[in-house]
Amino acid sequence: MEEAAAAAGGADSGGGGGCAGAPDEPVVSLAEVLAENEELEKEARAVLGGSDHERCSYSQGAVKRQALYACSTCTPPGEEPAGICLACSYECHGTHKLFELYTKRNFCCDCGNSKFKNLQCRLLPEKVKVNSGNKYNDNFYGLYCICKRPYPDPEDEIPDEMIQCIVCEDWFHGRHLGVVPPDSGDFHEMVCQTCMNRCSFLWPYAAQLAVPTLTKMNSHEDDGIVLNVKETEEQTREIKKESGLDHTEKCVEEQVEQCNEPSTSSGSACPKVVTQNEEQFCKLREFQRKPYLKKDTATFWPSSWRSKLCTCKDCLKMYSELDVQFLTDECDTVLAYENKGTSDQETDRRDPLMDTLSSMNRVQQVELICEYNDLKTELTDYLRRFADEGTVVKREDIQQFFEEFQSRKRRRTNRMQYYCS
Ligand SMILES: [Zn+2]
Ligand SMILES: [Zn+2]
Ligand SMILES: [Zn+2]
Ligand SMILES: [Zn+2]
Ligand SMILES: [Zn+2]
Ligand SMILES: [Zn+2]
Which has the closest alpha carbon to 164: 316, 41, 337, 364? Predict the structure, then answer.
């Protein structure tokens, strides 16, 4: 799910891949080989970094966010869905067919519990039968989006990126969101159509905070009527009027209705003067006073929009009733998780050479440094030949170099041993 990961993180996955030479033989520069490896490593580190790859995460209870997998060997479609942690994916399901679920929030590892008929967890066999707090969806069977398709989808020829909804955590095709998504670099998080319907309190916020989108008049994708209009409020109203879909009136009603919602649902009478107590100030009510529309589309949000959501008593109660308390938590974002993964490992990994050196005795240190210098000199010499000839270094060339270096090293080591004994 590399594409999707990149899209959700708001990063540009680049795509292109650096094929500059003849079409039959792609050539890459050394810098590109190294950069590509680093890029892949960085991405893997970001997704997996925050998760423990040695200990089953079950002991931590419902982990705030972790990399998660589903095993179609152990729990194929038709069986109860189950999710397993990163460490279990290596230790207990290493040879099985796994669906990578990217990251999910508030999940307890299921490995070896009652959902598994023939498998005992090797890392933490003592688990309760069922983790009642876990939420499952079709992702656990390898199916995504409202169209319930696998990813990658062998029958899908339309290039499209998958975007994760931050509320339900399902993944969606960009073309199945009811609007044309903004460029992946222009938004941070997405809330899908279904979740926007369920959490309709987000619409007044959307009018003020969300990233503008191109309007697709109809959610039936094949109608294909896309208006190339940046959606300012006036323009949207214009469009709706022209097409006989004037939602403005309806929204005024909804506005009134929603205004009373938090207090009515709490069973008490509507507080007469809200401003009496400063702590009672509600940003949502403030936003509801301004014009807004409810649409049947997903919404796209910029970074740190979550911190702008109201945290008054009534709103917090509403979040918990809707089971979306995480929305006010900036640390719940995938980005925060990825940053944690990256920085955790960076402190872990400072400088592998220096770390290794400090744990060695003097003789070992000298040997290692000699070997490192050998490698550097030989690689530089090897690459200079290409530079002199003006030819491009191919992937195979680098591979060949390391193979030859290894065998030279082996010969050297063998000779040493012979010499020493
Ligand atoms: Zn586990
Ligand atoms: Zn398995
Ligand atoms: Zn396990
Ligand atoms: Zn779809
Ligand atoms: Zn959703
Ligand atoms: Zn509020």
Answer: 337
Rounded distance from Cα 257 to ligand 6 centre (Å)? 15
Is the domain of 341 the same as that of 398? no
Q: Are residues 4 and 39 in the same domain?
A: yes
Q: How far is the CA of 121 from the centre of ligand 3 (A)?
A: 4
CA of residue 281 to ligand 6 center, whole Å: 7
**What's the CA-to-centroid distance between 66 and ligand 1, angstroms?**
11
CA of 314 to the centre of ligand 6 (A): 6
Number of domains in the chain: 3
Nearest Cα neighbor of 340 from 350, 349, 331 is 331
Q: Specify the higher pLDDT residue, 210 or 419.
A: 210
Range of the domain at 393: 357-420
Question: What pLDDT is attached to residue 29?
Answer: 55
Q: How far is CA 79 from CA 117, 175, 336, in A?
A: 10, 30, 34
Neighbours of ion ligand 2 (CB under 5 A): 71, 73-74, 93, 96
Q: How far is the CA of 151 from the centre of ligand 3 (A)?
A: 25
105-141 tens-digit pLDDT? 999 999 999 999 989 999 999 999 999 999 999 999 9
Separation of alpha carbons 200 and 294, rounded Å: 8
Cβ neighbours of residue 137 under 8 Å, at least 6 residues apart? Answer: 168, 169, 170
In this structure, the answer to whether residues 60 and 120 fall within a common structural domain is yes
pLDDT higher than threshold 80 for residue 93: yes
Confidence of residue 387 (pLDDT cuts 50, 70, 90): confident
Residues less than 5 Å from ion ligand 1, measured at CB: 56, 85, 88, 109, 111
Whether residues 281 and 367 fall in one domain: no
The residue count for the chain: 421
Residue 271 placed within a domain: yes
Instruction: Say how many Å lie between the CA of residue 233 and the centre of ligand 3.
Output: 52
* Domain shared by 113 and 239, yes or no: no
Tens of pLDDT, residue by residue over 15-62, are 333 334 444 555 555 556 666 667 767 776 666 767 888 899 999 999
CA of 133 to the centre of ligand 1 (A): 16
Instruction: Show the tokens assigned to 23.
Output: 């079409």
Same domain, 315 and 339: no
60 and 159 fall within a common domain: yes
**3-class secondary structure, 7:** helix
The predicted structure's pLDDT at residue 405: 77
